[in-house]
Amino acid sequence: MSTADPRPAMSLCPHFGTGDRPPGIPASACGGCASQDRPYDHQLAHKESLVRRLTDPFLTGEFRPIVPSPDVFHYRNKMEFAFGGLKDEPPLLGLRQKGRFDRVVDLTECRLLSPEAGPLLAAVRGWALAEKWPTYHLKSHRGLLRYLVVREGKNTGERMVALVTAEGEIPKDGFLAALDASGARVDTVVWMVNAGLSDVAHGEERAVWRGRGTIDDRLGKKVFRVSPRSFFQSNTRGAEKLYGIVGDFLGEGADTLFDVYCGGGAIGLCLADRVKQVVGIESNPAAVADALQNARVQEAPNTEFHALDAATFAKTPAWVERWRAPRAVAVMDPPRPGLQPDVRRLLLEQPVSRWVYVSCNPEALARDLAYLAPVYDVKTVQPVDLFPHTPHVETVVRLDLK
After folding, report:
1. What is the pTM of this model?
2. What is the mean pLDDT of the chain?
3. Least C-beta-crowded within 10 Å: which of 75, 119, 240, 251?
């Protein structure tokens, strides 16, 4: 790994930490970044060292240097900004205070999203104040405004804004006028209602106030339709690198690719041109609906996606029979806890000749490799940084049958 990052440093965001800040910026740390005060090459070295330490006991081949994020700032394509504040005081709009679920840091900018985040937040905050809309309070469960979700097509320039409220009526004209006054491009606007008590930044889609209710983004040459609740890798340009590595590790010559824990199907769809058939398995029906829609958009008839828990897939005889197809390979991108026991058992008892593990949690990855190492050679380990200024790191591992 390079010992120095050639990209120019940027001064710290005024909302990071508790040090000196311009007048009007509260001295409370935003929870969006954890290590913005550390040079990026130091962040990369720390993540690479962590992955190396945890995977070295199982490695039979090559450990590759960490791949940096193409963008160190403004890399995220989605942010969920919370409303907050006290009754009879100006509304707050930003991110949760670090370590506090019940407090919101009022943001004037966000360097994880695009530079247009600041003007958008200011315009919506001004609209809420002028219209006297009450913000939602997590303890009393009263109020209306809950979240402002912004999604961006990093490779298309398209932008979606979703307003998430509690149950109640809200006119659209003032909100749309505020977005227009911000000067930021807004292609589509969606109103969603979270009528429950859980603090989540989504809900029932009540109306599309502008545009078609979705935006498009590209991964390489593939176009993906992104809806308000789509699962889409949050660092678009970093995901392009990640999926390219997955494709290189899988290689050529396979007939069937099993994409297990496939989310919105991005990996399988990006690799569909390399194989005769892609079979995607995902427990979230909304994500499967996104995958099916994107398969239609991309005209990928050799793909199929199923709303099925991975553990159920792994122990259902009909699916296991398909898994045993000749010239089959697999990619698995599980959530943070790692592979389910039934999935590990399938890999051990019905092994494939080659598969790729995409991990977002090095500790869970190491636990899984301890189970799998007796049957598979851990041929290559490649860390990839998709989340600068946070402790998170992705790891791509190629495993070959011994």
Report:
1. 0.90
2. 92
3. 251
